[in-house]
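Researcher: Before we compare anything, I want clean individual predictions. No alignment, no superposition, just each chain on its own. First chain goes here; please echo the sequence and then give the structure tokens.
Model: Echoing the first chain and its structure:
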Amino acid sequence: MARGWESKAVEGQVQEFQSKEDRQNKKQLSQAQVETRRQTQVLLLARARVEKQLQSNQDPRYREQLIRALADLDAQLADLSGDTK
């Protein structure tokens, strides 16, 4: 009885591994797609940081600099999204 249970457990593990492998093969992205996603995430984090600084700062010169930085980040994000389409 114990052997039957063990073999079923092993069979289940093998099937689970094969199904995971099949899903990974379907979801694999090219190196360029992975790099584009990474760059997009970095730019989005930088944009969020600049927005937070913009909200909390009152110095007009610094705010102008932050607005320019925000516009630059938006342009970079637009370039990345244009490359993927």
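Researcher: Okay. Second chain, same rules.
Model: Second chain and its structure:
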Amino acid sequence: MKTQDIKQKLHRYIENANEKKLKAIYTMVEEEIEETTGLWNDEEFVAELERREKEYLNGTPKTFSLQETETRARQAIKKVKPK
């Protein structure tokens, strides 16, 4: 079954589920919901993302191509690898 089909079935089920079943489902996924949505309630986190986005759109920060990133990562690994 495709992901989209699963989502649709779950949405329909949740829309029609009784209170007891809704609470049970929520209890199962509550921690994950908090983990994924909690950051968006953190004002410092959101402000930092907005600052970085603004810098990126203005062309201010130094960016690296994929090749440059891979090269830098390989160099860093060589420095910490035991000889």
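Researcher: What stands out in the second chain?
Model: The CA atoms of residues 54 and 60 lie 9 Å apart. Additionally, The chain has two domains: 1-41, 44-83.
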